[in-house]
Design brief:
Elements: H1 3-13, E1 25-29, E2 32-35, E3 40-43, H2 58-70, H3 81-93, E4 98-102, H4 105-124, E5 130-134, H5 143-148, H6 152-155, E6 165-168, H7 173-179, E7 184-189, E8 192-193, E9 199-200, H8 203-216, E10 219-223, H9 238-241, E11 247-250, E12 261-265, H10 267-270, H11 286-301, H12 304-325, E13 329-335, E14 338-343, H13 348-356, E15 359-360, E16 362-364, E17 368-371, H14 379-403
Parallel strand pairs: 3-15, 5-6, 5-7, 7-10, 10-11
Antiparallel strand pairs: 1-2, 2-3, 4-12, 8-9, 11-12, 13-14, 14-17, 16-17
Helix pairs in contact: 2-11, 3-11, 12-14
Bound molecules: pyridoxal-5'-phosphate.
Length: about 400
């Protein structure tokens, strides 16, 4: 079938909820993906921050192959070996004592919202249900996660939203203090807002927020769906700040490309959920858990966090240098290999230019280019990327000068 016909088939039969690029990707290996015409692309935003080990990482593929021969799926009415093993690994790697498994970031956040409400109602009073979240945040597309999300553009047309969410400006402690009431049960936030434009929390704000939550018996929920699993150079972003949450959500990179989400919490909070309070048919499925175990083992055995820190700071330094050359770059920011460049104009055209040069990147919020290569990226690959980026930017500068 021709490229045109396949795209037409998609338009005919798939709900058109995505602005897709005209690329049909059929194969991937490491930092590369190939399209149906065998063009090779350099993937600097693999799978919306899912493929942290690159495409089809061998140990993950092997784990999936092996598990698929033993057991693909059983219900949560029975115990399953990969699920209990993965839960133990996640608890040993984090602050948590217990894990609930699901299938996506939105679903992990739904679980966190439900648990926070149940905990507060059980322990602190029936009127405690309100959750404060940040403007510019992104927590997912299901109704409660959407209501938690602090961006109107995603909510319009879906009202009425779920009640009980208040949004406050990010990094503004006074606003947060004002928003807290006797109804507040939790504060939920990303430590680095991903979709919102790679905006980092300030340590000072986080410390004050943490103290206030402790004092007022308010749960702290970190959404690490995008920042988790090594993306920022630590297994979880909260480990940079030395402040632990009561609940943390994960998804994206956890399964190395296989859908899985998780909500992690302490024993104290977890005990509010009784059997039957929450469930998910596919949550913690043996296949997904086997893939996730392989991801976590690889991160440890291959020293992936060290590489993320080293290559992240090299990449960041180089991007900062490039910023000095081009006046239209307003900012370079991020942590580890979660990096972004803010432009003074719309970035979608630049994404297309990169794609013509066979490089895949992302643009968020209209003008913020996001670079999130696999965490095992090497220096040569970063240098190749930077060379292409500079060439594209030079052309833009020339065009800009001509316009003047
Ligand atoms: C921080 C954060 N939370 C939640 C989500 C939603 O995850 P999912 O698309 O798996 O539901 C995303 C997705 O981009 C995210 O970045």
């Amino acid at each position: 079938m021709s490229l045109k016909k396949i795209i037409q088939q998609d338009k005919n039969y798939v709900l058109q909820t995505y602005n897709r690029k005209p690329l049909i990707l059929v194969r991937g290996k490491g930092i590369y993906v190939w399209d149906i015409e065998n063009n090779r692309y350099f993937d600097f935003f693999p799978g919306w921050a899912v493929n942290n080990l690159g495409h089809c990482y061998p140990a993950v593929v092997d784990a999936i192959n092996k598990q698929s021969k033993d057991l693909l799926h059983i219900s949560n009415s029975y115990y399953n070996l990969p699920q209990t093993e993965l839960a133990k690994m996640l608890c040993h790697l984090s602050f948590a004592d217990k894990v609930f498994f699901c299938n996506s970031g939105a679903e992990a956040n739904e679980s966190a919202i439900k648990l926070a409400r149940k905990y507060a109602k059980r322990n602190l009073g029936s009127n405690k249900y309100e959750i404060i979240t940040m403007l510019g945040s992104f927590h997912g597309r299901t109704m409660a996660a959407l209501s938690a999300t602090g961006q109107k553009k995603y909510q319009q047309g879906f009202e009425p939203l779920v009640r009980g969410f208040k949004h406050v400006p990010f990094n503004d402690f006074e606003a947060l203090k004002k928003a807290i009431s006797e109804k507040t049960c939790a504060v939920m936030l990303e430590l680095i807002q991903g979709e919102g434009g790679v905006n980092s929390i300030s340590l000072e704000y986080l410390k004050k927020l943490h103290n206030l939550c402790k004092k007022k018996k308010i749960l702290l929920i970190f959404d690490e769906v995008q920042t988790g699993i090594g993306r920022t150079g630590k297994m979880f972003a909260y480990q940079h700040f030395g402040i632990k949450p009561d609940i943390m959500t994960l998804a994206k990179a956890l399964g190395g490309g296989v859908p899985i989400g998780a909500m992690l919490t302490t024993d104290k909070v977890a005990s509010s959920f009784k059997a039957g309070d929450h469930a998910s048919t596919f949550g913690g499925n043996p296949l997904a858990c086997a893939a996730a175990i392989a991801v976590l083992k690889t991160i440890k055995e291959k020293n992936i966090l060290k590489n993320t820190m080293e290559k992240g700071s090299y990449f960041f330094k180089k991007l900062k240098e490039i910023k000095k050359e081009f006046s239209f770059i307003k900012d370079v920011r991020g942590k580890g290999l979660m990096l972004a460049m803010e432009l003074s104009f719309e970035g979608e055209k630049i994404v297309e230019d990169f794609s013509r040069e066979k490089v895949l990147i992302n643009c968020t919020q209209g003008n913020i280019l996001r670079f999130m290569p696999p965490l095992n990226v090497n220096k040569k690959e970063i240098d190749m990327f930077l060379k292409i980026l500079k060439n594209i930017f030079r052309q833009y500068e020339k065009l800009g000068k001509k316009r003047k």
